[in-house]
Amino acid sequence: MTHAKLNVELIEYTQNPLSVIYSAARQCYSSEFAGEIFKNKTDPDKQERFVEKIIGLGHLSPLEHVKFTFAIEGVSRALTHQLVRHRIASYSQQSQRYVKENNFKYIVPPSIEKDEKLKKEFKDIMSKIQKAYNKILEATSSQDARFVLPQAAETKIVVTMNARELLHFFEERCCTRAQWEIRKLAYEMLLICKKELSVVFSMTGPKCLKRGYCPEGKFSCGLAPSKEKALGK
Ligand SMILES: Cc1cc2nc3c(=O)[nH]c(=O)nc-3n(C[C@H](O)[C@H](O)[C@H](O)COP(=O)(O)OP(=O)(O)OC[C@H]3O[C@@H](n4cnc5c(N)ncnc54)[C@H](O)[C@@H]3O)c2cc1C
């Protein structure tokens, strides 16, 4: 049993994403065919200005034509349970039925990592779980033995989201109110998206960035003003 570390890789994404979004958006306002608009290779600066404009207007459906696929490892089952709540996405996750966990990796939360006494207790519990798992596996099957595995157990998952859903995901999960592990993942994904398609993702982050205020009330981290304060009330 060993610690596992977060690793995020962009394994595939829509080619010519800017032109795809531009052509789809222009189709809404033009008598020209999107297929021709796409082939015409409009100047990228012009495409960017147009895409910025539609995003500003909240006309976001053209972003749905662009998809990003991430391979993710070194995350806990606690994280993926939250991740898969995002419904406008596709997932393929390592199975605990088909993959035997007789040497499972796990994630140690930073608050436990920095406390030597807690860390030892945590590791001892993981060892006990491993022993129990192996015993049950021997007597039954991996689909039953997995019932004793912890939420800390490491998992691997492939996720595909379109650019519009990614904007929403970042708004929710880059917020300091989000749980630390999924927030870390969200920021890793955001950095990758910014590099590949900055016109869409450069101004993205927690929802307070877009709104200009924090809707979390007494749970606010204080980085953004409350709605009342932002409205001068
Ligand atoms: C800080 C934080 C704390 C949370 N705490 C809890 C908790 O304690 N318990 C809990 O159960 N969950 C919790 N969640 C999960 C949360 O309720 C959502 O399930 C999760 O964030 C997925 O987001 P979503 O539903 O907005 O969007 P997605 O599923 O990603 O969908 C994107 C958007 O599509 C639209 N949409 C999708 N499906 C539907 C639908 N069926 N009907 C109408 N509109 C739809 C919505 O506008 C939605 O915002 C928490 C999330 C966060 C960020």
Describe this protein's structure.
With 233 residues, the chain is an alpha+beta fold. It has a single domain, classed as 2-Layer Sandwich (Gyrase A, domain 2), CATH 3.30.1360. 48% of the residues lie in helices and 13% in strands. The protein contains twelve helices and four strands; from the N terminus they run βαααβαβαααβααααα. It has helices at residues 17-29, 34-39, 44-57, 77-83, 110-113, 116-139, 142-145, 163-173, 180-196, 198-201, 207-211, 227-230; strands at residues 7-13, 67-76, 89-93, 154-162. Strands 1-2-4-3 form a four-stranded antiparallel β-sheet. Helix 1 packs across helix 3 (44-57) and helix 8 (163-173) packs antiparallel against helix 9 (180-196). The model has no long low-confidence stretch (mean pLDDT 94).
Derived from helix and strand composition plus strand pairing, the structural class reads alpha+beta
Distance between the termini: 55 Å
Overall 3D geometry? globular
**What does the radius of gyration come to?**
22 Å
In DSSP terms (H or I, runs of 4 or more residues), the helix count works out at 12
Please list the strands of the largest sheet in the order they lie side by side.
1-2-4-3
**Record field, number of beta strands:** 4
Weakly predicted, low-confidence segments: none
Number of domain units: 1
Tell me what the CATH architecture is: 2-Layer Sandwich
Bound molecules: flavin-adenine dinucleotide
H/E series: EHHHEHEHHHEHHHHH
The CATH topology assignment is: Gyrase A, domain 2
Main CATH class: Alpha Beta
